[in-house]
Structures are given as C-alpha cells and as structure tokens.
Amino acid sequence: MTDSPTLALAKDLISRQSVTPEDAGCQQVMIERLKALGFEIEVMVFEDTTNFWARRGSESPLFAFAGHTDVVPAGNLDHWHTAPFEPTIVDGFLYGRGAADMKGSLASMVVAVEQFITDHPNHKGSIGFLITSDEEGPFINGTVRVVEALMARGENIDMCIVGEPSSTEVVGDVVKNGRRGSITGDLTVKGIQGHVAYPHLAKNPVHQSLLAIHELATTEWDQGNDYFPPTSFQIPNVHAGTGASNVIPGEFKIQFNLRFSTELNNETIMARINDILAKHDLDYDLHWTFNGDPFLTDTGALLDAVVGAVDNVNQTKPALLTTGGTSDGRFIARMGGQVVELGPVNATIHKVNECVKVADLEKLTAMYQKNLENLLAQ
Ligand SMILES: [Zn+2]
Predict the structure, then answer these.
(1) What is the pLDDT of residues 232-285, one digit of tens each?
(2) Residues annotated as catalytic (active site), given as ranges
(3) Who surrounds ion ligand 1 at CB < 5 A?
(4) Each residue's pLDDT tens digit, 32-49
C-alpha cells in the first residue's frame, strides 16, 4: 500500500534531523510544495534561526497556519524501540522524533492546503504559513521576530491555527483557545553574613524572608474566570548558605513563577509582589523575566470554523481549554487576531518513542481542510 500524501510528507520531515534550532531542510520541502500552489515565499533568517513566511492571496481575511520544524533531542537511544530519525510504522502508529510535535501537523497543514486549493483555486481572503525552527529552543529568533517583521509593515494575521499537539485522547478532543501568561521573578534578599554563634553581629536573610514567602505562597491572586483557572504561584528554586553549618548566609535567593489568567497582567503582578515585599521590610533585588502574556480567543469566526471542522470529522465538538505551558501562539496573538491550537495527541511529546496514530494524521488533515472551507471557500 502506498502512503497517503500526509503520511509520506510526515515521514520525509521526520527523517530530517532538525534538532533545535536546526531545520535540516524541512522548510525547503514545505516551501517547494507551497510554491507550486502559488504561495509567495519569504525566508527570514534571524541569527541561528531559519523561518519562513508564505502567503497566497492579498485579500482579507488573512488566515495562517503556524508551526515549527525543529524538534527536541532524541534522548537516550537505548530506550527507543525504533531509530528516532527513521520514521517507522508499528501497529498503526508512526514513530519518530517530531511525529506528534509537530511534523505530523506540518504535513497535515500542507496537504490540507493542497486539497483545498485544488477544490477552491479562487478562495476568499489569503492563506499564510508562519514556520520557525526555534520553538523548542529559546524562542528569541523565531516566531516572535517574524511577527515583529509582519506587524512593522501592517501585515497582521487575522486568524491562526497553531499545530501544537493539543489533543489528549483522540485527535481533536481538545482545542486550545488561549494560554496562561508566565512571569518569573528572581528575588535576592540581602542580609549580613556572620558566625552562627554571634547572630547579633549578622542578619539572617532566610529568617527575614520567611513571612514574606509565606504570604506570597498563600495569596489568592485571582479566582480565574470562565476560561482560565486561578493564577498559580510556585517557587521552583531557592538557595542560601555556604554549605558550612556555622555561617549565617549573606543572601537568600528565591525564584518564583506565576502562571496567570487574563484577570492579571505583568504590571499588576509586579506591583502586588513589590507591595508584599515592602510590607515585610526586606532589603532585596528583584529581577523579572516576562515569558508571555495570556491570550484568549473567545467566540468568533475562527472558533466557529475550527469547532465545526472537528465536529464534522469526529461527530463531536472539542473541549476548549487554556491549560498547559506557553506556546508560540502568545506571540501571534500580539497581532490582535484570533489564535487557537489544534494538533495531534500529546501523550508522547518530548519523550522517547514519540509517536502519532497514522489514522489521526488523516483526520487532522481533514479538520484543517474543513476549517479552510468554513472560512475561505467561495
Ligand atoms: Zn511543539
């Protein structure tokens, strides 16, 4: 039996060892296919990262697929049952690094567009592809830079499907229609180092901080809303002390991270945390890292089209969730358009023996194609 177009393309992409930020020729394969459909291609290289933007049509609305060709490293090869960069089918599953995250999605997108354009060569609006090779890396020179370049010339994506593996049990059971924001604080509380036997000559920053940390850890930041769970605060790292049992430490480093809902933003969080620290009269430095604002795609044309497309294929509607980590969707959402994530089952992503059900690739292709029909068919 010959492979379906989606399966054949997914295999081709998986066989290229595009460990982040390498692209290993994956984008060129996609570009050739899109060029043949009449897409205009713009390769955008920023530092070590290759990206491309492709567009077919000049009208509004501009609908785009977004995704990444890079993958995380294979990990321990002894634990793989198949070679990670040799796509292999076992019992109806396609194995290989990137099968689910997200070369299967990329193949589905390209084939869905090929089939849609064959049926609707004079479609409404425009179709875009925003593809990067640094989603799994530091996300500095990837989607965020392409978004900046597009925004600078007023070319804003109105609607976007990111092909991240959103599904949990069957493909399409979950569509992510937003993501929480993420902010990290690196707090250094300063004391005075000294001998534990002479505490009156020192100032212990651990002791000084405990009530403030307790208050931070027990504060209710918000109650969430219809789409978001309550904002969470967690301390992943702390450090103080020299290792010696007779030295009062000179400083105490506490790192915290908040995953926050659309009820809050960076400014309100920073202000509330500084208020708490000030109340406890601490001498401190606080360095912030902004990992992304929350975004939400509420009711609208895109959500209707995607939910309808999933329903058409699965005979059941997807759950709309905002759970999970951040994704490149947060950068695309800055353009002010609607952004959702729809992709394969995420059970094996970043693990050894990453796989995707072959039948799910066909379903995903059908969902993407149906979505295009719902939005852009004449
Ligand atoms: Zn991914």
Answers:
(1) 999 999 999 999 999 999 999 999 999 999 999 999 999 999 999 999 999 999
(2) 70, 135
(3) 101-102, 164
(4) 999 999 999 999 999 989
Span from the CA of 19 to the centroid of ligand 1 (angstroms): 12
Query: In whole angstroms, what is the distance from residue 143 CA to residue 72 CA?
Result: 17
Bond preceding residue 21 cis, omega within 30 of 0: yes
Residue 361 tokens read as 């690739």
Gap between the Cα atoms of 368 and 102, Å rounded: 14
What is the C-alpha radius of gyration for the chain, rounded to an integer number of angstroms? Answer: 24
Whole-prediction pTM? 0.86
Helix axes 26-36, 5-14, angle to 10 degrees: 150
The rounded Å distance from CA 293 to ligand 1 centre is 18
Residue owning tokens 């852009």: 376
Place of tokens 């994956």: 26
Q: What is the pLDDT of residues 165-221, one digit of tens each?
A: 999 999 999 999 998 999 999 999 999 999 999 999 999 999 999 999 999 999 999
Task: Please name the residue that has the structure tokens 């997807």.
Answer: 318
Cα angle 146, 147, 153 (rounded to 5 degrees) comes to 95
Residue 102 token pair: 């997200």
**Lookup result for tokens 């430095």:** 285
Helix ranges (H only) for 176-300 are: 205-218, 266-279
Question: What is d(CA 23, CA 15) in angstroms, rounded to the nearest whole number?
Answer: 12
Please tell me the distance between residue 162's alpha carbon and the centre of ligand 1 in angstroms: 9
Span from the CA of 63 to the centroid of ligand 1 (angstroms): 20
Within 13 Å and on the Cβ side, how many CA atoms surround 205?
24
Q: How far is the CA of 208 from the centre of ligand 1 (A)?
A: 42
CA distance 262 to 294: 6
Do residues 372 and 64 make contact, with C-beta atoms less than 8 angstroms apart? no
Helices (H), 280-352: 301-314, 329-332
